Amino acid sequence: MAATLAIVGAADTQVGVVPGRSPTELCVDAALRALADAGLDKSQVDGLITCNAFAEPIMYHAEAIAEYLQIFPRMCMTAGTGGGTTFSVIQHAAAAIAAGTAHTIVISMADSLRSFMSREQAMLTQSSTGHPQYEQPYGPTVPAYYALIAQAHMAQYGTTAAQFAQAAVSGRAHAARNPTAQMRDLITVDDVLNSRLIADPLRLLDCSLVSDGGSAVVVTSAERARDFPHAPVYLLGSGEGHSHEHISQAASLTTSAAVLSGKQAYERAGVSPADIDFAQIYDCFTPTVLIQLEDLGFCGKGEGGAFLESGATLPGGSLPVNTHGGMLSHCHPGNPGAMFALTEAVWQLRGSAGERQVVDASLALVHAQGGIMSSHATLILGRDDD
Amino acid sequence: MMTEPQKIQPRPTAVSAPYFEGCRQGVLRLQQCAACGRQQFYPRIVCSHCGADDLQWHAASGAGRIASYTVVRRGVSAAYEAPYVVALIDLAEGPRMMSQIVHIDADDARLRIGASVCVEFQAWSEDIDLPVFKLLEEQ
Lengths: 386, 139
Ligand SMILES: [Zn+2]
Fold this sequence. Notes:
The structure holds 2 protein chains of 2 kinds. Chain A is of the alpha/beta class. Helix content of chain A is 34%, strand content 18%. Chain A contains 12 helices and 11 strands. In chain A, strands 3-2-4-7-1-8-11-10-9 form a 9-stranded mixed sheet, sandwiched between helices. In chain A, helix 6 (161-175) packs across helix 9. The longest helix of chain A has 16 residues, at 23-38. Chain A is globular. By secondary structure, chain B is mostly beta strands. In chain B, strand 7 and strand 8 (129-135) form a beta hairpin. Chain B has a single domain (17-135), classed as CATH 2.40.50.840. Chain B contains 1 helix and 8 strands, in the order αββββββββ. The longest helix of chain B has 8 residues, at 17-24. Chain B has a 5-stranded antiparallel sheet. Chain B has a 3-stranded antiparallel sheet with strand order 2-1-3. Chain A binds chain B through residues 120, 123-124, 127, 130-141, 144, 147-149, 151-152, 155, 196-202, 247-249, 253, and chain B through 7-11, 16, 41-42, 67-77, 79-80, 84, 86-88, 96-100, 112-114, 124, 130. Residues 33, 35-36, 38, 47, 49-50, 52 of chain B line the site of zinc ion.
C-alpha cells in the first residue's frame, strides 16, 4: 500500500538529567527543534498532538502547549494510552491528514520524572496504572507488574533471568555508540544478574532509567513530503492492539496484543518480519523486549531468550534493536519514552545516525506499549514510499 | 504528631459494596451470572462474558492457585514494608485476582507458580479488610 503519511522533521531535547527546563518547556523546546529540522515556521502548523506530563499535569495539555507556542491549530489533541501513546497517535495523525482535517501536524511529548518529582512521587504516580480498587491496595510497584509477566514466561517457556538480562546488555551496547545516551558504559549479563533485586526476577539493570526529556516529530502527507530539507520517512503500515488495562484482567500473561498490532502493520505495509532491517522495541523492562520480539514474529513463541542470546539484536546483528540505547540506556522520561525510538528510526532511515548507523537501513519496525503490556502500537517505516 | 503511613485504600461503591462487606465478614464473594453461570471478578454491572445484568453474589470457596507472583523488594511507599509477595491468584471458581501471599518468607522455595493457596482476610484500615492468600500446608 502506498504511504499516506511521512515524517519530515524529528528532534530530541537534551535528555537525562535536565533540571533547567520544566516538562512544559521541554515539550515546547522539542516542538520548536522538530519544526527547525523540517524547515518550517510555527505558523505553518495546523495540528498539534501531545501527551500529558506526570511531573506537571495540565488539564488541557495540547491546548496549553499551543498557547505557549502561540500557534492556532485546527486539530489539537492530548493522547493517553501510556507508553503506547507515542505511536498510536501516528495512526490518528495519518487519519487526520487523509481526512483533510490537518496538513502539518506536530507531535511533541516530554516529561521530567527525574528532576521534577521525588523518587517516591514518581514511583507512586507510575504504579497508579494499577486498578485503584483491586490492584493498587496490594502495593505492586511498576517493576512488580512486569515481574508477574516475567515469572509467568519463565514458568511457561523455561526462560531465564540471564536471557532477560541480554536485552539490557544489548541496549547498552547500542547506547555506547550514542553520545546523547544517559548510560553509556558497557555492561555484561553478570552485571545485570549482580545488580540489586527490585521485584523478582527483575533487578536494577532490568529496569529502564528515570529521566527528563522531550522529543517531537513533524508529519505531513506523503504527497507534500518531498518539499522538505531532509529525505522523508514514510509510514508504510500501522496497527494497534488493546487487550486489557490491568494485568490481573489480561487473558494471557505471556502473549500480548503486539501479535494483533504487528499483524495489522505487516499486512498494511505488505512486508514480513524477515524484511525488517532494524527494530525499536519498547523496553521499560527487559522482559517486554523478549516477549515483543516473539509476538512481533522475529522468533517463535517461547524462543525470545535464545534469540536475544544469539546476538541478533546487537550492533551489527541481523536485527539491531533499540539502536539509540532504548529506555534501558538512552533515557526514559515516562510516557514520552518511545518517542526517542521514533526520532532515532527517522535518523537511521535518513542515514544520518553517525557511528551507530545500521548499514543499508531502509525498513524499520517501531513498537510501543502502554499500561502493563496493555495497549500496543506498531509502525512500519521506510525510506521509500511503497 | 506523626501519623502512621496508610496503605492504599479501595473505595467501595454501591455495586462493589457486597464484595467489601463480605471481606469484613471473612467471606470472599464473587458475582455469578444468572444467564450463563460464569463467575467474575472484579465486580461489574454486567456479566463480562455474556453481557447479562442479572448478577448474584455467591461465597467463593477461597481456594486457588498462584498464576504468577513476585517478591517486591522495594515497597511502593512507606506503608508497605518490603519484602512482600504480590501475586495473581486463579480462584477455583475461575476468575483471577491480584492479592498478596502472606505468612511466608520471601525466599521460601514453596513459593511457586501453580502452588495451592487459600484465602484469609487482613485489615487494611479501620473500615476495610482485604483478601490475602496463604500457601496450603499439605504440599
Ligand atoms: Zn453471563
